[in-house]
Prior knowledge:
By secondary structure, this protein is an all-alpha fold. The protein has helices at 2-5, 9-16, 34-56, 65-84, 92-108, 114-121, 137-170, 180-220, 230-268, and strands at residues 21-23, 31-33.
Amino acid sequence: MAAEAELTPTQYIGHHLTFNAKAVGDGAFWTLHVDTLVTAALLGIASIGFLWWVVRGATSGVPGRRQAFIELAFDFVDAQVKDIFHGDRRFIAPVALTVFVWVLLMNSMDFLPVDWVAKLTHLFAPEGFRIVPTADVNSTFALALSVWLLMIYFSIAVKGFGGWIHELFCSPFGVNPLLWPANFLFNLVEYISKPLSHSLRLFGNMYAGEIIFLLLWMWAATGTADNYYSGPIFAILLGLLWAIFHILIVALQAYIFMMLTIVYLAMAHESH
Length: 272
């Protein structure tokens, strides 16, 4: 875009890292990142719709390619759940599969060229869209917080409210009343650290990947005094290499987020 061609490198990166934010009320507290919400919602609908489409067309005979792919993915996720959680998997396995597919799709938005996305989204959003929901700490923390709430729910459902409170104050150091403050502080740190580490790990990796792509695309617009095309050539080559490597990061981060979800929900069913 002509306007972007006049931006300095700092302005270019800052422009593409700006959220399409809408204040709620007086804007003192609530601000919605519309691009994150819309993209995440559309990808969530797409992932659920794709799974529904495959299941609707499933047959008991020789499976087609899409059915075989989903069966492999489901068997893989179910095997991971089975190795960690030894109870009824009818809820946790579908949740793990949904989390994996959704996070994978959101991570994969990082492969779309930001300038192409900006040209399209500038038609209805003045600041354009940040197209990678998992590069927004608000979305990763919301996902982690949802898992955290499920973890507390299962802890109370399996152990009872009294059993959960007893565990908070009487483990891991013992039931002596003098140890209750130490037990509670220990468990409080554990409860706080879980959603923080769960969310920041995914956010940090995807945000770093987004920055590297922006630096490469910015390099594509530059060149040396002797050869203007050196910038685009090197940017394309390095961008291709980084995109290939980033495929592993995108899939690995979705896998890690799924595995931590399984681990936290499995821990909620266990007693110390």
